[in-house]
Amino acid sequence: xxxxxxxxxxxxxxxxxxxxxxxxxxxxxxxxxxxxxxxxxxxxxxxxxxxxxxxxxxxxxxxxxxxxxxxxxxxxxxxxxxxxxxxxxxxxxxxxxxxxxxxxxxxxxxxxxxxxxxxxxxxxxxxxxxxxxxxxxxxxxxxxxxxxxxxxxxxxxxxxxxxxxxxxxxxxxxxxxxxxxxxxxxxxxxxxxxxxxxxxxxxxxxxxxxxxxxxxxxxxxxxxxxxxxxxxxxxxxxxxxxxxxxxxxxxxxxxxxxxxxxxxxxxxxxxxxxxxxxxxxxxxxxxxxxxxxxxxxxxxxxxxxxxxxxxxxxxxxxxxxxxxxxxxxxxxxxxxxxxxxxxxxxxxxxxxxxxxxxxxxxxxxxxxxxxxxxxxxxxxxxxxxxxxxxxxxxxxxxxxxxxxxxxxxxxxxxxxxxxxxxxxxxxxxxxxxxxxxxxxxxxxxxxxxxx
Amino acid sequence: xxxxxxxxxxxxxxxxxxxxxxxxxxxxxxxxxxxxxxxxxxxxxxxxxxxxxxxxxxxxxxxxxxxxxxxxxxxxxxxxxxxxxxxxxxxxxxxxxxxxxxxxxxxxxxxxxxxxxxxxxxxxxxxxxxxxxxxxxxxxxxxxxxxxxxxxxxxxxxxxxxxxxxxxxxxxxxxxxxxxxxxxxxxxxxxxxxxxxxxxxxxxxxxxxxxxxxxxxxxxxxxxxxxxxxxxxxxxxxxxxxxxxxxxxxxxxxxxxxxxxxxxxxxxxxxxxxxxxxxxxxxx
Amino acid sequence: xxxxxxxxxxxxxxxxxxxxxxxxxxxxxxxxxxxxxxxxxxxxxxxxxxxxxxxxxxxxxxxxxxxxxxxxxxxxxxxxxxxxxxxxxxxxxxxxxxxxxxxxxxxxxxxxxxxxxxxxxxxxxxxxxxxxxxxxxxxxxxxxxxxxxxxxxxxxxxxxxxxxxxxxxxxxxxxxxxxxxxxxxxxxxxxxxxxxxxxxxxxxxxxxxxxxxxxxxxxxxxxxxxxxxxxxxxxxxxxxxxxxxxxxxxxxxxxxxxxxxxxxxxxxxxxxxxxxxxxxxxxxxxxxxxxxxxxxxxxxxxxxxxxxxxxxxxxxxxxxxxxxxxxxxxxxxxxxxxxxxxxxxxxxxxxxxxxxxxxxxxxxxxxxxxxxxxxxxxxxxxxxxxxxxxxxxxxxxxxxxxxxxxxxxxxxxxxxxxxxxxxx
Lengths: 451, 284, 424
What we know:
Strand content of chain B: under 5%
Radius of gyration of chain B: 21 Å
Number of strands of chain C: 11
Order of helices and strands of chain C: HHHEEEEEEEEEHHHHHHHHEEH
Structural class of chain B: mainly alpha
Number of helices of chain B: 12
GO molecular function (chain A): peroxidase activity
Distance between the termini of chain B: 23 Å
Cofactor (chain A): heme b
Family (chain A): Belongs to the DyP-type peroxidase family.
Protein name (chain A): Deferrochelatase
Oligomer: heterotrimer
Enzyme class (chain A): oxidoreductase
Helix content of chain C: 55-70%
């Protein structure tokens, strides 16, 4: 529920298509002509699928023309961090069961292999039907990529005495400790390894999780998982893409740092070589995950003005409270002109999260949240909230500092963080011979250094 | 006879060949159904029936002693007999659970019932466990003890008359591990007494028995599989041995997270690997 | 190797037992062999018995004719392989056939009633018994690749060879899913293990009583031990050597009760009930104990083909149907009804194990078989009094005929089971 570690990039995103779309088209091997044709036509809505054409049965599957979308697996950084957030996401946290360095290597090699297949898609091996099938089959006989990203991160506990990784622990990676408003449930916290799965549809993330669980039963044990989704919006011509709303009805993600700004990302997001961190971390980033329950019934019984003052934004437009008529979420609040908090209260969420001072520039984080809805609590209330995920090059300066500023905010009456953890997202897999965590394992001499 | 069995297997392989041709684009795993004659399965299935029969006889005997203690109001003795009595049942669970009415009556847990501990349908071992540990008393347990003994005797009778379905026998090795993985590793099975490690031992023994009985039928080139499965059983043995106490085990609460993780990994991997046993032996 | 029909001519059984002796010869000690060679002529007492036996044979011969006339001979299919048995040999005596279902037409041109068997070592693969002189019989067997021996007339005749070559139509592919039989076969294996284990210990008790010279106890222990053998006989009869040693009757031995090959249960029965004398029985009892122990081991390793279950039961029921109406099978003790009840229990076990499969394939046959079984059991139960089953001698001719009919009806129904579940 952290908002507003604002990007210094101010201009509205009025580009006719996102660079990501371009990447997708490239990945699909479409030429310029096709691209032009596609842009001229009705662009597919992001995320969810349409109902099938007329004549379908009630139970006919919804259709989508985005199932072939795929994100590149190889690269300096892992996919799923600056990749535009698709409709569905999940974080799964595991205990690593490997007992020996060799098993740890096998874990990362297998994870690499599975990720490569899952993000690329294809036909799983067929087996004699008297055996359990190799694939769950929930996506059909051919696994579609469906824009899947699999992002692998490691927790501080992996750097305990088991594998001799202690000396190579990321400097700021620690076991998440409770903030004052937290009510952490041990069953929903921490882990040796986290996997963030994002895709156009929830089925694709579930398929990927099941594949990983099935292929690594002796090396990974699931601790917890949380799925989420973001609402799909209509595309409005000539208007910048809007941020999705959370379950409190407010836009979440307004003024996220621009992931297309490489220089900015290298400063706030990606760990750089030659800094204070171990070399192996270059190209990775810190991941903070928080499962934040929202008390939505109570929120819905709160006057709108109070809601807006708690957030510091107008609910419907997302505009800052000091914005005039017609202001949007892309307008930037000027707290300097509101020293007494007349428009935007000092304890409002956005003002605490990002006071927009020169100092707070070092606290920028890249948010990637999803909304979750799990069922009903024992009190008969809806168990729903925010699967908060953010990335930063320095966990202390990033999430931890921002959250400390938020401690005691009025919003706390409506939210309750119950789980999550801190992880370090491994550098990308660079080529066919590389695999997850290879730089770390090489640094610890568990595998030979890459040639 | 041998030769004809081989040709039978060859015919099976042929049929599978045409089956895989139906999906030409998919990579085909070399792992086809094993060249095992169904008739080769007769002896181990029979051996398994004898194993189950002996375990059931033991179970009846132990249950009698346990329920006698309950009825005599001897809380301490009943507590001491609770876990060891259950071991035989846990060993033969793949067969015992074929009789779902008895399984529910003998071994269901409070959360299997709408009103939990207060539910009149909550009977059997865990109902008595609840009384012994939560209430530290045998009061009102008499009828449950009578019913338990009657149910166990009925189970014995039904097992004696049962022709064991081979796929249930072979599949039982994995089923036992699935049981542990799904509902026992959490310690929710014996939640009042925390005697879960006894149950584990029974489940592992039962699973390993099946594996050992059918292992000689596995293809000669399946050594890696055998080694892996045995390795995981051995891992489990090592962990369980750490918690041995007298003739039994320490409380499940004593299990460290690290050891539980080793157990969990071994159990899940055994479940995954043993799930291929039926296919390897050519059983649907 | 329990005699099929009371009326089977002596020569046939002699042949058969003599053939078995060849096997036994290998396994038996030199003394046994020497003893056989030096067998004394029958005593006058035995001669009297032989006369009585001849009278019985006349009656039994009628029964055979009766049974034979009831069976309409099945015409042999066109592709049947004809084997002609003459006094000295079989023509042909060397056969080569492709694997699969093969039908043989056996023509008996000799002057003795004969049987024709396909043997795999000591195991009977298929047999056709009681082929009367001048008659022919057909036999259909599912043959697997391999080399087999065939018995061919008299012992002095050389055994023939049957070579089964691999073939495309071996029929294995068309065989029903064998997995369906794993359960029943395993259950039967358990039954055989338990019953043969019980047989070994019951025989040990019996041997102990004989050794102790306790005639009354030995008599009392004979019946339950014999019953246990009857339970497992559908499978045990496959071992021709052991079956002969354990259960052969004197009728079929050259020197009858005086024949050194007269061993096993009937030899004990003869001593315990006919002679009322334990003299010389200790080695017989110990030999029997050794044989049933071997049998237990062999059954433990036996991989019974599924069709053997019903086949074995049917064979025994048919034999009883023939013998019960005449002199019976436990002639010294008169405990035939006890013995028959045990056979029915053993056959009932087999039928019960196959019933779930039959009920799916041919519900009417399942019902019919069960009804016939129940009827046969009911008839036997009717002969049970406070002292146990009646002695055969106390059962009237009409009752015996009715029992024979009920057994034949059950045998006929049992004979259809295999075909109904795709095992023929």
